[in-house]
Specification:
Length: 120
């Protein structure tokens, strides 16, 4: 067996419509497919990101993973998302010489991060 690539990342959600609005309308991801309250799949620039609706016996708990979305200009992306109602956790961080990042939460409390890689 050989692992070829990461196929997708998904978060559980207790309110599919609210979560779809956040990822589509606030973050600007393209909704590719939605199956009612059980599943929503987005194009995230060549990668896939999904939402999984609540299943009996599986409580929605944030954490365990962070979806990280690359942007060309972190400052512009942050301002655009704040204009759409996003609230960031802090001013952001930096890995010197490598990247800058900023984190926010989706409506279910899952961490979402934006990252801008520095050019050499």
């Amino acid at each position: 067996m050989t692992i070829r690539r990461l196929d997708h990342v998904y978060y559980w959600t207790s309110d599919m419509e609210r979560a779809v609005r956040f990822y589509r309308d606030v973050l600007g991801l393209q909704l590719v497919r939605q199956e009612g309250e059980s599943w929503a799949l987005f194009d995230a620039g060549g990668s896939r990101f999904a939402l999984h609706g609540v299943v009996d016996g599986h409580p929605v708990a944030p954490g365990g993973a962070t979806a990280v979305f690359a942007v060309d200009d972190l400052d512009r992306a942050r301002l655009a998302l704040e204009d759409r109602g996003a609230r960031f956790h802090e001013r952001g961080g930096e890995v010197p010489g490598y990247a800058r990042f900023a984190s926010l939460s989706d409506p279910d409390g899952n961490t979402v991060q934006l990252i801008e890689y520095m050019t050499p």
